[in-house]
Design brief:
Elements (H helix, E strand, L loop, with lengths): L4 H7 L4 E6 L7 H8 L3 E5 L7 H12 L4 E7 L6 H5 L5 E5 L4 H11 L25 H12 L1 E6 L2 H5 L1 H5 L6 E4 L1 H7 L9 H17 L2 E5 L3 H10 L3 E3 L4 H22 L6
Parallel strand pairs: 1-2, 1-8, 2-3, 3-4, 4-5, 5-6, 6-7, 7-8
């Protein structure tokens, strides 16, 4: 199995750049994402339409690239974590985590002993279809615990107030935030330059720095890419998903065609 590309980018001193999928699940998508220059891709189970079979297919296709796939789920689906990871997914992101207890429950499902209590499954995509047998605990489990990223997402006032304690939980590797939900809870919905929102992002980044965890920033503008990197966000989720990228590209092409047709007197919508 390949090492996690997020960890690889961080080791190399680079920012790990990510994008998201919520609509398209075809075999060529991972290759396109790799060719575009991304390090990882978030497959959206929370807001997307992907079932476990689609996630398993995507996991296999991503394994053919140097892009690691992580899956976003809501915390009410924590019980799905073992099955998702057994498909060869390289990370799990859990939304709306508010407490230390919730963070620990996620770790129990996602990490093998002695860190968590993830159930042991033998040959599968997660092991490259190798059989470790009695060596599972000594060979595969340590590799999986070190490489598979467990990320929690702060999206509420409760989570923000507890973020330092959550960052201290053993087995949590990365902390993200839901920029739309968190800014809404702060009373400044999508005002991402508002001082209140910026202070929240800084608090999350500082908590990660204090406890040696990765901070993932959602950089919605080019200026925020630089700003969040300087805050300590070594992982940067870039704006948009497959839906917005495809839609924006099509609109741009149609717009250019309509403008040219209009210039020669052809009616346009």
């Amino acid at each position: 199995m390949k090492d996690n590309s997020i960890w690889r980018a961080v080791r190399e001193g680079r920012a790990a750049l990510g994008t998201g999928l919520k609509e398209f699940a075809s075999r060529g998508v991972p290759w396109i994402i790799e060719a575009a220059g991304f390090d990882y891709c978030m497959i959206d189970h929370e807001h997307g339409a992907f079932d476990l079979e689609a996630i398993a297919d995507l996991a296999g296709w991503f394994q053919a690239t140097n892009v690691s796939a992580i899956v976003r789920i809501h915390k009410s689906f924590t019980h799905l974590i073992p099955a998702i990871l057994d498909q060869g997914i390289m990370g799990i992101q859990v939304s709306e985590v508010d407490s230390v207890e919730e963070a620990r429950a996620i770790v129990r499902e996602a990490k093998y002993p002695p860190v968590g209590n993830r159930g042991i499954s033998g040959q599968g995509m997660h092991t490259g279809y190798r059989s470790y047998g009695g060596r599972h605990a000594s060979e595969y489990a340590p590799w999986a615990n070190a490489n598979i990223i467990v990320c929690v997402s702060i999206e509420s006032l409760e989570g923000l107030e507890t973020v330092e304690a959550i960052a201290a939980v053993e087995g949590i590797d990365m902390i993200a935030y839901g920029h739309s939900d968190l800014s809404a809870r702060l009373g400044v919905h999508l005002q991402l330059e508002h001082p209140t929102f910026k202070a929240a992002v800084r608090r999350i980044a500082d908590a990660c720095k204090a406890h040696g965890k990765l901070a993932r920033g959602s950089a919605e503008t080019e200026a925020q890419i630089e700003e969040y990197w300087k805050l300590g966000c070594k992982v940067l989720n870039l704006p948009g998903t497959d839906v917005s990228t495809y839609l924006d590209g099509l609109k741009a092409r149609a717009g250019r065609a309509h403008a040219r047709l209009k210039s020669i007197g052809v009616p346009v919508p």
